[in-house]
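Class prep. Protein, please:
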Amino acid sequence: MRKHFLFLFLATIAVNSLHSQARGNRVGYIDMEYILQNVTSYNESNTLLEQKAENWKQEIETKKLEINKVKEALTAEKPLLTKSLIEERESEITFLENELLDLQQKRFGPNGLLMSQKALLVKPIQDQVFTAVQDIAEAKKYDFIFDKSSDLTLLFADKRFDISDQVLRVINRTEKREQLSKKELAAEQQKESKEDAIDSNPELAQRQKALDERKAARDKIIEDRKLAQEQKKKEYEERRQKILDDRAAKKNGTVSGTTKTEVQKVATPDTQTEAELARQKAVDAKAKALEDRNKIIEDRKKALEERRQQILNDRAAKKNETVPETAKKTESINTAKTEVQKAATPDTQAEVELAKQKAADAKAKTLEDRKKVIEDRKKELEQRRLKIIQQRDSIKRAKEEKLKQ
């Protein structure tokens, strides 16, 4: 019985030793500097500490400038001072320099405020890292975990043994859990279990990494497309606004040469010719309307002239007539009545007709000037149209010659 029990015990020890030899030692490492750089709370506190250190440096620089001023003053006044006063000033400068050195040691020395506050800042993160490393080592059966940034010299370390990201996730999870609700906590735990599964399976981790890279590339392509679309939209809006401005300027008769050349560059020959023809038609229609209007004005002018001449003739005839006084009175009364009915005396009516005639003359002159301007524009457009047609014909001939060759 004893022999049997001893045999079983030795067999168990042998199996365990063979299993440990077959499994081998599992080793991992962390990068403490990398972890600290990616912890948000540490970065915020470190930024505040750096600002405080900058203020300390400025204070030290101010004291240095004050000591330099005292030294310069002593150098300038030295020939005028006695030996005792010089020694007193030098001792004062020495005291100020020693005070400055003490302040530098107190703030930036090995045991100064900066180093002690940095140690206080790092200690909570180090404790969290130590706890996270222990949990990961127990869960994933690591035999050794080293710190790459410590005094231990690692000549080579494969990236697949780096568990810094896992430690960071554990620290971030702890911080998030304090601020999440129950529902968000459940979702976060599900996400954590997925991340742990990826960490435990290297092939799955590589696959996830490839998926993340593809997603990042796809997101970048989508972002580039959006930027290109926005750029095209912006260019279209600018071109549209420019065309509207050009139209407004053409209506006012103030089109710049540069604008014309830019519009010609944008438009193709066919489009340009069609636009020129449409403009010419519009100008022709406008010129015809102006001619009709001028004709109507001329007819009105002639009618007014005839009416005016008739009124003057009537007045002259009335002055030369010799009738009895009673007849004259009755005739004057009747004439007054008729004139009252017409609501104007002959003199007043003639003046009104003359004023109307002057206005009509001025309007006719303006219309003639406009007509002249329109004719000039028409000629210019015709020349441009002929020039464009010639350019198109030359381009077609050049293309046909190239095709023949």
